[in-house]
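Incident review: delayed structure delivery

Summary: a single-chain prediction request sat in the queue longer than the usual turnaround. Root cause was a stuck worker, restarted by the on-call engineer. No data loss occurred. The affected request and its eventual output are reproduced below so the record is complete for anyone auditing the incident later.

Affected input:
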Amino acid sequence: MAISDFTVAVVCSSNMNRSMEAHAFLRKKGFNVRSFGTGDKVKLPGTAWNKPNIYDFGCSYDDIYRDLYNKNQTFYTRNGLLNMLDRNRRIKQHPERFQQCNEQFTVVITCEERVYNQVLEHFETIQNIGNKPVYVININIQDNQEEATFGSFLIYEFVNLLSRSEDLDNAIEQLVIKYQEKCHKSLLNCVFFF
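Output delivered after worker restart:
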């Protein structure tokens, strides 16, 4: 399969940190990639644990950046959110919700088990329109900046392995096992047909 035909979606909860870090890295490596969140809202840490910043999907990264900058520039610079949002707005305009996307992908990589389950629930609710497989794979990545960076390398390594397969349908199980042994990461995986 040509790398241009191999399409990837990377999904976390809010389309802010883990999915965007992987999106940036995969795009840099030449992959046809998009990123998403599965939550009802985009949630970012606030100045207190019980006061998160909450936005609608579709609110631009620029608007979120300006909002946090105006609320407390020093705090949000120190905790890295402004830097993260600056990266995000160079990649795309706003966070996107996976459940609102109609595009078909070769592989959907999720970054935590809860998000994986939400993706599976979404696929179970939509109409089956063909026989094209989509591989849904979960690689658990903690939601912090350091782990998101490390996770983007793990995701790239796995996606690169999958993209080089000449018969992904028959090779997927062996590739998952090979990756788990090499990276000491346990993966969840499922296939849907559309």
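Verification: The chain has a mean pLDDT of 93.
Action items: add queue-age alerting; document worker restart procedure.
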